[in-house]
Amino acid sequence: MDSxxxxxxxxxxxxxxxxxxxxxxxxxxxxxxxxxxxxxxRRGDIIITQGGVVGKVVKVKDDxxxxxxxxxxxxxxVIKSTIASVTSKTEPAS
Length: 94
Description:
94 residues, 1 helix, 32% strand
């Protein structure tokens, strides 16, 4: 391989490096933060789902779903991965 071939691949390598640092790496960090937030959800937290439903966590059923009260005496089961954000956290048990 001569230096001309390396010079042809250099722009491609630079583009990949830029894409990694500007797109891929921040996205991986965001996914990690979301997984940590979802794992930390517990009873009493106010959550917003990706569908826009706001409710209070009544029970954490298992590793995959929670029971959410969206109105008085109206409870729904929600898959944890569909939780978009936790707006109000309860204090951890001492």
